[in-house]
Write a structure and sequence with these properties.
The protein has helices at about 5-15, 20-45, 55-75, 80-90, 100-115, 120-140, 160-170, 200-205; strands at about 150-155, 170-180, 185-195, 210-220. The chain is α+β, with helices and mostly antiparallel strands and about 220 residues long. It has a four-stranded antiparallel sheet with strand order 2-3-1-4.
């Protein structure tokens, strides 16, 4: 028997299904469901969004179970695995993931499904616990204080110097982001990092001659150190 015959025989044998018992399937799916529920709870605790997405958190559990089923199917045969890759390659997802943490939880759920599908249940449990501990530890780190935006409207076109003098007393640093001078007066936007009570700053600026309004807004964009 030549090398070609051996290769052909080996390929034909790959059509035969690997013995995967119902017990193996139930155990793998149960562990995947348990790990998915654990990811679900961690996402519920960690997320700080104003609008909690229940559908996304449910998808984390289902995604782990579906991935486990796919891996169990792929283990049955080389031919089946190639067909599965071809079938899944035509699937296109258009939903954009805006929050990087959502992407982490999605990848976490998929990877746990793969690990449970190959039967490495201890690795799945240890990895899930380790990932959750790392996330919890990093969440405890103090967050950088985001800058604030001070919006001022004054009828005094030459009142910028006095305004900035008051701003310097209450802030660690500041930067004029916008300065608009019209016939009615001066409009300014100042980015600042507070070191004292912000209410005192607004009240003192509001007391200046010609100031019609002073607003302090939290800048929720990306923070720079």
């Amino acid at each position: 028997m030549g090398f070609k015959d051996i290769l052909k025989k080996s390929f034909l044998e790959s059509y035969n299904l690997t013995d995967i018992t119902m017990q193996d399937i139930l155990i793998a799916m149960a562990v995947a469901c348990g790990v998915g529920l654990y990811i679900f709870l961690v996402y519920r605790v960690v997320t700080r969004k104003a609008f909690y997405s229940k559908s996304f958190s449910i998808s984390l559990v289902v995604l782990a179970m579906i991935t486990t089923a796919v891996i169990l199917t792929i283990q049955s045969s080389v031919v089946v695995s190639l067909g599965m890759v071809g079938a899944l390659s035509i699937v296109r997802f258009r939903t954009a993931v805006k929050d990087p943490m959502d992407l982490i939880f999605l990848f976490w759920s998929i990877s746990m499904g793969i690990i449970c599908g190959v039967g490495l249940f201890e690795l799945a449990v240890l990895t899930s616990v380790g990932v959750s501990l790392v996330i919890a530890a990093l969440e405890l780190l103090p967050a950088v204080r985001l800058p604030m935006l001070l919006i001022i409207n004054t009828s005094e076109k030459s009142g910028e110097k006095g305004i900035l003098a008051i701003v310097a007393k209450y802030t660690k640093s500041y930067k004029v982001k916008s300065r608009n001078i019209t016939n009615q007066g001066l409009d300014m936007i100042v980015e600042l990092r507070m070191k004292k009570d912000c209410s005192d700053l607004v009240q003192e600026i509001q007391a200046l001659t010609g100031v019609s309004s002073a607003s302090l807004l939290l800048h929720e964009g990306e923070a720079t150190y």
